[in-house]
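Q: Start with the shorter request: fold the first protein.
A: Done. Sequence, then structure:
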Amino acid sequence: MLKFCAMVILFAIAGGTATAQTKIFNGENLKGWECDPVELADHWKVNLDGYLYGENPDMKGSILWTTKKYFDFMLELEYKALSEDYDTGVFLHGDSHQVQIGISRSLKKDMTGCIYAPQDNKGAYPGQTDKVADFHMEGEWNHLMIIVEGKRIQTYLNAEPFVDYEGINFIEEGPIGLQLHSGVHMAVQFKNIKIAEL
């Protein structure tokens, strides 16, 4: 059902021509990704199940970036938190705007699917929704879809439309990043990370 919904959305935004999706995580190694800072690269690995596994027992922060930069895209992934407290997310064009996954350090509540963009000067989370508690499945696999077109960012959690936000100081190109926030020991898994460039 989730795959069908994603294809319907992709068909619509591509003007009637579905753009081919490609996997940006191969399930075998971290080819095409790089950690910042590089000395914390051991935070990230591929586990025996073929999932991208992130954990920071030292409670330091790191970001796993794609080596490729992207303009407009539709990104899909599945994630599962393995710790009770976690603060992760997806950076969209470098460290500009981020889609939150888990508990915001500043707001102390689950802001999954919301847009973190303090540089827009509209508050830390200018793109929010009140649907998080109803659709975020704690301790289970969740499906997140993010669509970036120009400065517009749309998020969908488990096929439910979440946020439709127009960025302000949103750069037009950059890598995609997965975060482990500092200050909390967390563990999270990702799988089926794929992208369609628009």
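Q: Next, the second protein, separately.
A: Sequence, then structure:
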Amino acid sequence: MQIYNQKYLNIAEDILRYGRQKEGRNGYTRSLPFKELEFDMRNHYFPLLTSRKIHYEGVLGEYAAIIRQPKNVKDFQKWGCNYWNEFGDPDTGELRLSYGNSWYNFNGVNQVRNVLNNLRSNPYDRRHVISAWNPEGMEDLSLPPCHFLYQFYIDEDKYDKEKTLSMLMYSRSGDWMVGIPSDMVFGATMLACWSNLIGAKSGTLKLMVADAHIYSDHFSTAWSQIENGYVHYDANYHLQPQFSTEDFEPKHMEIYNYEHKGNIKYELKT
């Protein structure tokens, strides 16, 4: 059993009790800086909250769309992800996103190809970094990326000496009750796929959230979730072999042994 479920709830409580009140783009929040969560994905553990049911299928679809450089809300809908509907052009559905697109073309640089090649040829390098934060044109995006930096680290498992791949995912902003549980799924899917591509085991996934916040509309429901507790068991996953980053489809990721405390509904703030 891992401790991230308890740590997640502890941070939620800290935000509610001690967070600074802010007025932002889409409502009032309480906020704390630089909160982190860590997940051990060895032995095919998959980080899903158990204090409420996480509908992870849409996030698997979101990852499938992002690795194909999405340009329209239909690119997400194709894979069962409807989150981006609100951000598309109302007439054409067009999206202008850094997610995925800048991974493959950051001012002419294919970061995905470069990092994968470097992970294979120079595994202990300290430059395994993908960035989606390009100040040029940021104001023209449908939404600036929330998680925008991904750094990889290769090590050997201390028990069986197999190569393991770990990842840090950095977010400028995180809606703690709605967005962060989805980011956990996104990051875990990304790490599992990239580990598979280089022939490594998945190691540690760490999420760093610069502005961890809870919306005022969510305060009472968040307290209910905290008081609800969590299930003390970890979910597992099985991923079909991948041959390129663009191969992934949601059906390739099987998640099992997922137990939870049931549905708790939050209004999505867009």
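Q: Describe the second briefly.
A: Helices lie at 4-18, 57-66, 73-77, 101-104, 111-121, 179-198, 219-228. The two ends are 34 Å apart (CA to CA).
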